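Hello Y.,

Per our agreement to keep a running log of every chain we model this quarter, I'm adding this entry. I've kept the format consistent with earlier entries: sequence first, then predicted structure.
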Amino acid sequence: MENFGKTISIIGIGRLGGALAIALAKKGYEIENLVARDTQTVEKIKHLFSPKTKILSPEEFSEIKSDIILIATQDFEIETVAENLAENLSYQPFVFHTSGSLSSEILEKLKDCKIGSIHPLVSISDAIIGAEKFADVYFCVEGEAEAVKIAEKISGDLGGKSFSIETKFKALYHASAVTACGHLVALIDVANEMLAKCGLDEENAQKILLPLIKSTVENLAVQNTSEALTGTFARLDTETFERHLNIMKENVSGEALETYLQLGMRSLHLVKEQNSNRQKLEDMRKKLSLAKKNLKC
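Predicted structure for the entry above:
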């Protein structure tokens, strides 16, 4: 990496692009250009950068001369951005995109550049707040070997850790991230629905459940999933399960009940690793299977 420089242009200044720009600037990278079609986030954060930082439009790619180009646009725009860069660049920088689901192959039009992808496994809802969230975060990096080394260096400079996967598995990696993050929020919404049926409003329901959720995440920091599982399914408590089933049939949506049953079945996979009572396990599995069957009828 002897030719590695620290000048960066970022294309796509939304929540993630803006957060990366701020965080990298704090770590000594020179942010030469912020390229944005919608300047809302740029106007919010531009005071945080050197006066040398230029605000460019997507029609001004020919002005980019940075060592590194980060494409932080929406996924559907990345290929078009790569094509436009290929037509306008007169040198061979490192070019990365930040998509979780797309691999570096989407940048194949940049034949003379060193290409890769770098995706932080963190939820960024605001550029300024998000800039402080990269420490200890894992970054998924893939692409050409030399580009991967640079991506690892960037991740480390931001205080994060990096790991690599094969290019062909990028979409599966992203599906895992969506399940752990977006689907987790959806699951909590289901739990909110259930607790709200007890006479609470959903805002208070979420406040009540949040310490429980946090304690579960804390357990996962020191235990694997089978060890961290607690509650009715961990105990193979069929009587409590039947009480849940009866009250849920009367009070919650079919979607919420189906989610509960499907996750209950997954919980039994975890219980199998920890509980040696095969008969109780089989009894619970049969009751779950029957409930799922009746739900479809």
